[in-house]
């Protein structure tokens, strides 16, 4: 039982060392991910459209 209590005490100490991100940091990371995903999606849509046009011309 003493080991369990020690474990929880040490866990609490370790949680005190954790630095959680600020609201602004989370928002900036969200915007960065959203922009990158949007750009990649548009690029893949363009490549898909070009490839399907080429296949349509060949067939």
Automatic annotation (TrEMBL):
Keywords: Cell membrane, Membrane, Protein transport, Translocation, Transmembrane, Transmembrane helix, Transport. It comes from the Bacteria. One of its GO terms (molecular function) is protein transmembrane transporter activity. Gene3D superfamilies: Preprotein translocase secy subunit. Belongs to the SecE/SEC61-gamma family. NCBIfam families: secE_bact. Component of the Sec protein translocase complex. Heterotrimer consisting of SecY, SecE and SecG subunits. The heterotrimers can form oligomers, although 1 heterotrimer is thought to be able to translocate proteins. Interacts with the ribosome. Interacts with SecDF, and other proteins may be involved. Interacts with SecA. This is Protein translocase subunit SecE. It comes from Campylobacter cuniculorum DSM 23162 = LMG 24588. The gene is secE.
